[in-house]
Amino acid sequence: MSVDLSFNRVEIDLVALKANYRLIRELNPNRPLMAVVKGDAYGHGLVECSRALVAAGARDLGVLDVLEGISLRKAQLGDVAIYILAGLQTPGQIRAALSHDLIIVVYSLHQLRLIENLIPSGSQAKVYLKIDTGMGRLGLSWREAPNVLSALAPANMTHKPKIKYLGLMTHLATAGDPEAKTQLARFLKIQEVDAAVGLTQGRHSALASPGLLAYADYPDQLSRAGLAIYGANPLVDLEDRLSSKGAKVVSKLKPVLSFSSQVIQVKTIRAGETISYDRTFVAPADMRVAAAPVGYVHGLSRSRSSVGHALINGQRAPLLGRVCMNLSLYDVSQVSDPKPGQKAILLGHDGRARIEPSLAAKWQGTSAYEILCLFGRLNPRTYLDKS
């Protein structure tokens, strides 16, 4: 969809994206840092953001599935490693991953057997073993992992291995709390078993954005930066869990995605009249109300009804009544000279006023992750790269 033909506009600042990646690399310059671009780069645009991140020095990219991996191979980004973080299940997916030199994150012995049976003669599949250390999601149980690693070790193989195990991977459910430390301790113990049996190449990965900012000095061999490279703090309201290095990084992160609509009508609503569906908002006095063509089809959830505000002409304009499919209404009684054609900013800044992803997420009863994915994927995007 052409940005010029839409009322709504998402802008992606690629200069800020590259700066954020380099900033997070400074936490430990000697540690490889995977740029996580899964989910269409959190709604920011898979290929465009990956190209910018590679220009910023990224050599490892994490994608959602084999389709995203193939898209990046077709984009010809050079000698970069691409990881399928959600794993694979079907023979077709596995064959596609192998033919495009994609690294597969494996979380079950069934997957390993399936992959091994599909590897062409003389070839090897590149694999990470996912260990569930307490997330309760995907991965081999941390209790079973030592026995599994021993059974898969080269000394116990009767033929040349068809799978190259690059390392172990886990994922933290939280960061900066005792439960996360327990997960990391379990993971280190399993790494000791791996070193003893010689299964993997030892490029282990535990920390994503929250863990990176909480445990800057943890001995990770490959960390994974997602939300933070897009300029959002994954530990918002939990700043006491940030390491001193992490706090400095968060203070310098730059927002990458902004989202705006525009005013299409301004009218007067009289005291006692109602606004939008179900008559949930009754005007307490005469009001000036602006309509913007943005609603839940664009990612502005119906749960936002009468919650939060937009920025219009640099001032806060409270959202009034029900959010509709493609319309929402704002109180511009205190906005100077509101008129059609002015921007209605839902995410980003207008002068000194700013709406951060974390604030929009609170209003919408969700996380900054979802806000970025929703706004970014449901609206036409344009890319800014002054470099």
Summarize this structure as a short list of keywords or feature phrases:
single chain, 387 residues, 24% strand, Lyase, Ornithine Decarboxylase, Chain A, domain 1, 2 domains, alpha/beta, TIM Barrel
Structure description:
Helix 1 packs across helix 3 (46-55). With 387 residues, this protein is an alpha/beta fold. It is elongated. The protein is 30% helix and 24% strand. Helix 6 (109-118) links the parallel strand 5 (103-106) and strand 6 (125-132). The longest helix is centred in the middle third of the chain and has 20 residues, at 178-197. It has two domains: 14-252, Alanine racemase (TIM Barrel, Alpha-Beta Barrel); 257-355, Beta Barrel (Lyase, Ornithine Decarboxylase, Chain A, domain 1). The protein has helices at residues 14-25, 38-42, 46-55, 66-74, 91-99, 109-118, 145-152, 178-197, 209-214, 244-252, 357-364, 368-377; strands at 9-13, 33-36, 60-63, 81-84, 103-106, 125-132, 140-141, 163-169, 223-225, 257-262, 265-269, 274-275, 281-282, 287-292, 309-312, 315-320, 328-331, 343-350, 353-355, 381-384. The strands form three sheets. Strands 1, 10, 11, 14, 15, 16, 17, 18, 19 and 20 form a ten-stranded mixed sheet that branches.
